[in-house]
Structure formats: C-alpha cells, structure tokens
Design goal:
The protein is mostly helical and 322 residues long. Among the domains are: 91 residues, Winged helix-like DNA-binding domain superfamily/Winged helix DNA-binding domain (Arc Repressor Mutant, subunit A, Orthogonal Bundle), CATH 1.10.10; 40 residues; 56 residues, no CATH class. Helix content is 59%, strand content 8%. The chain has a three-stranded antiparallel beta sheet. A hairpin with an 8-residue loop joins strand 1 and strand 2. One of its GO terms (molecular function) is single-stranded DNA binding. DNA-dependent RNA polymerase catalyzes the transcription of DNA into RNA using the four ribonucleoside triphosphates as substrates. Specific core component of RNA polymerase III which synthesizes small RNAs, such as 5S rRNA and tRNAs. It comes from Citrus clementina (Clementine). Pfam families: HTH_9, RNA_pol_Rpc82.
Length: 322
C-alpha cells in the first residue's frame, strides 16, 4: 500500500519535472486510485483541456498508463468501454535514478548509445525517426550521424534489454470472475502462489506489455519480404519489378520508423544495479574470484529473469562459467 511519504515524494518529483498542474493530476490519481478523465476533472476542478494535457504528459513520460474496462450497459448494445488511468508509482521514483542509469550505460556502451538513451529518458517515448532527428539537430562537425548507425545502436540497446517497445496504449483489463474473487481475497500469499498480479497497477502493466519477442525487437528491412512479393509479380518486367520491390520495402521501413515507439526499460537498469550490488557484496566479503564467478552466473541466467525482484536465479550449466 502506498504510504503518505511515498505519495508526497512522488508528487514532489513530478512537480520539479513538469510543474504544479501535472503534479495536481498525478496526486489525484495517487490518492484516489484509477480514475476516468471525467472523475479526474471533478476531483481536481481543472478544465477538461488541462486534465487531458496533464495526462498526455504523464503517459508520454511513462508515469501513467491508460487501460479500458468493460461495464454492462443495461441495454441491448452490450458492455460499454470505459477508459481509466492509473499511476505507475515505481516509474516516478526511477526518474531520480536517471543519472545513475546513464552512468551504467557509459561503462558498457559507446557515447552514441548513451545519447540515444538520454533522449528517451528526457522525452519519454520516441520513434526511430524522432531519435534520428534529435541526433541530427545536435551533431557536431566531423561527427555525422546516419540512420543505419543509429539503427544499429538501437538494436544493441534493445538486445541488452535497456530499451524496449512501448506497451499497448489502452489494454483491456478483464473483470475478475466470481470464481476468481474468493482466491484473490485470501491474501497476497495465495495471489503470489497462483502467479496473479496483486494490484490493479500490476494487472494493467502486465496486460499492456507486448509479448517478449515483440517487446525486445527492432524491425529492419529483410530480403524475405522481397521473396514473398516475387510470387505475385511474375507478369511485371524485371526493371519495373525491382523498382516496385524497393519502393514497397522503403515504405515499410519508413512506416516502422515513424510508428513503432520505444522507451527506456527501467527494469533492465534496476536489474543491472541489483546484479552489481550482489557482485560488489561478494567481492567485499569473499574475493575477486568468487565475484567473477557470480558475475558470470548472473550474466548467463539474466535472460531467464522475468521480474526485477527475483528470489532465485535461473538454472545454468556450470561449463558456461568456466
């Protein structure tokens, strides 16, 4: 349960970063829980436009997640969709760790990687084209930025799980059935055993996340698309066919660069900090050899970790750390 101190601290962070108006909407959601836009307007006594703009800022900065629920309408039209907004409290706290995140990144990657993530931390969410435009606007003489190198940088960061695709904008949160209700009411321990999220925030986050393969992927132009189109273009002359294929591939690439949105993966950074803390602790209490073995173990099993708060690492083969 969120404490009063936690609420005040989160509001303080949002106030410093985005101003009083956005902080007022954030505080309303922190204290009242998930609300519709109309209810936020009613509780804050702000105009509809002010509430809308504040929510857009909080969503853009990954501090609020919208979700949809279905409520019985009472008529023959069926259930009625209802959009609500929930605060992502942990993501607000992560904002004070941005400098530490960049320090971690600078120890593992080059400056272009650091600058790309810095842009994501500053703007919240960006497409590849927006990243490229930002890099072009700040490029220095003799250090030209091209789209291909930026795409390679993005692929490296996504592969390392420091960057991810943004979640669904408004996932549908299914209501708890009568059979599931008693199981939820037994307490948090039973909820953990059956592997269900305990809070609405966790349920919404789980529902919004894309599949793992999609979450950490960067779509690039591939030759398989050309091969598929060759089957449907036998009656076209070779010259026209090549032009057609190139144009369609370019259109697909441009669409991807302008529509797929990425953000920094806070879980990846927190996991790296936790690993570093464990390794430093072992090094201080044992020796460098033990720390190196633990480091190799954590690196070999990190892909199996699905949550930041992991009690046990994944299983591994001892030969992998030899």
């Amino acid at each position: 349960m969120l404490t009063e101190y936690g609420t005040k601290h989160a509001v303080h962070v949002i106030t410093n970063h985005f101003g009083d108006l956005v902080a007022k909407v954030c505080e309303c959601l922190l204290r009242k829980g998930p609300l519709t836009r109309q209810n936020v307007k009613r509780y804050t006594e702000l105009s509809d436009e002010q509430v809308k703009n504040a929510l857009l800022v909080l969503i853009q900065q990954n501090c609020v997640q919208a979700f949809t629920t279905e409520q019985p309408d009472g008529f023959a039209d069926g259930p009625k969709a209802n959009t609500q907004y929930v605060v992502l409290f942990d993501n607000i706290l992560h904002r004070v760790r941005f400098a530490k995140f960049l320090t971690i990144l600078s120890q593992e990657f080059d400056q272009q990687c650091v600058e790309l993530v810095q842009g994501l931390l500053e703007h919240g969410r960006l497409t590849l084209k927006q990243m490229f435009d930002r890099a072009k606007s700040s490029e220095k003489e003799g250090n030209l930025v091209d789209l291909d190198s930026l795409r390679e940088t993005l692929v490296k960061l996504v592969t390392a799980h420091y960057v991810e695709r943004c979640p669904a904008s408004e996932p549908l949160l299914m209501p708890i059935s009568e059979e599931e209700g008693p199981a939820r009411k037994k307490g948090s321990k039973s909820a953990k055993k059956i592997g269900e999220p305990e809070t609405i925030e966790q349920q919404v986050v789980e529902a919004a996340l894309p599949m793992e393969a999609m979450r950490f992927s960067v779509v690039t132009n591939v030759e398989s698309d050309v091969g598929e189109k060759e089957k449907n273009s036998n009656n076209v002359t070779p010259g026209e066919k090549r032009k057609h294929d190139v144009l369609e591939l370019d259109e697909c690439g441009v669409a991807d660069e302008q529509s797929v949105v990425y953000r920094a993966n806070f879980e990846g950074f927190i996991r790296r900090l936790r690993h570093k803390g464990c390794i430093d602790h072992v090094r201080a209490h044992l020796d460098d050899g033990a720390a190196n073995v633990l480091s190799a173990m954590l690196q070999a099993t990190s892909s199996a970790e699905k949550k930041v708060k992991t009690k046990n690492s994944g299983s591994f083969i001892s030969e992998l750390i030899a």
